[in-house]
């Protein structure tokens, strides 16, 4: 698939406003600052896309990007915004949960975690939910360039081990990734292609 010809499709504040539920979709999620916008930029070569997602007021929306008529990438808002009021967070989490539970065309979830602080509470929530729902997850340990190769792969093994111990490894794959160095892009594309293939 050609991720370079991707286009912004629409933003939806709630599930009812999402595009029609057909074809295949892969969603990207991560705590804010995990490197989600940078990863989407690196994948698509389009700096405007993720900036769209970051426009203030739009951060709480689900953003849809069109790869083809039948295939989409979805940018879920970063969670963990300190400045968002508690009530808004709760409301947002309900919308997110509804999207994840009800979206029939959702084929997989890319979960981004800063390699220096993996498996935070919300990551575990997302993983638990996805594994229980039978939704495959591909974890990107982002900003891998911040570590030497040895420690980076040690972290990958440690995360793998922790997931196994917690029974959260079913359907879960993981890799190190760096948007800055553009490393790990091939692997990510292969996973996306598998999920989005008709
Ligand atoms: P988002 O909030 O998840 O969309 O995160 P961003 O993509 O905006 O990245 C948050 C911060 O981390 C920014 O300052 C980025 O420049 C930085 N960053 C993102 N990806 C990388 C990476 O691969 N390597 C390094 N060194 N920094 C990164």
TrEMBL record:
InterPro entries listed in its UniProt record: G_ENGB_dom (IPR030393), GTP-bd (IPR006073), GTP-bd_ribosome_bio_YsxC (IPR019987), P-loop_NTPase (IPR027417)
Domain EngB-type G: 22-198
Annotated CDD domains: YihA_EngB
This protein's UniProt keywords: Cell cycle, Cell division, GTP-binding, Magnesium, Metal-binding, Nucleotide-binding, Septation
Cofactor(s) needed for function: Mg(2+)
GO molecular function: GTP binding; metal ion binding
GO biological process per UniProt: division septum assembly
Residue ranges that the Swiss-Prot or TrEMBL entry lists as coiled coil: none
GO CC aspect terms: cytosol
One Pfam family cited in the UniProt record for this chain: MMR_HSR1
Primary role: Necessary for normal cell division and for the maintenance of normal septation.
Family note: Belongs to the TRAFAC class TrmE-Era-EngA-EngB-Septin-like GTPase superfamily. EngB GTPase family.
PANTHER family: ENGB-TYPE G DOMAIN-CONTAINING PROTEIN (PTHR11649:SF13), MSS1/TRME-RELATED GTP-BINDING PROTEIN (PTHR11649)
Protein's recorded name: Probable GTP-binding protein EngB
The species this protein was found in: Microbulbifer okhotskensis
Lineage summary: Bacteria, Pseudomonadati, Pseudomonadota, Gammaproteobacteria, Cellvibrionales
């Amino acid at each position: 698939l050609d991720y370079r010809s991707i286009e912004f499709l629409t933003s939806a504040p709630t599930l009812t406003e999402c595009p029609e539920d057909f074809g295949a979709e892969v969603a990207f999620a991560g705590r804010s600052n995990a490197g989600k916008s940078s990863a989407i930029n690196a994948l698509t070569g389009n700096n405007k896309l993720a900036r769209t997602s970051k426009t203030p007021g739009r951060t709480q929306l689900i953003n849809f990007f069109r790869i083809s008529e039948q295939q989409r990438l979805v940018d879920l808002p970063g969670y963990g915004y300190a400045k968002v009021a508690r009530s808004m967070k709760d409301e947002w989490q309900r919308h997110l949960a509804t999207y994840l539970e009800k979206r029939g065309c959702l084929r997989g979830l890319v979960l981004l975690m800063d390699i220096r602080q993996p498996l935070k509470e919300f990551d575990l929530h997302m993983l638990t939910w996805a594994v229980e729902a039978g939704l495959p997850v591909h974890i990107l340990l982002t900003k891998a360039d911040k570590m030497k190769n040895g420690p980076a792969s040690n972290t990958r093994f440690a995360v793998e081990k922790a997931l196994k111990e917690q029974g959260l490894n079913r359907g879960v794959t993981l890799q190190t990734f760096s948007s800055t160095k553009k490393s790990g892009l091939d692997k990510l594309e292969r996973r996306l292609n598998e999920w989005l293939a008709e």
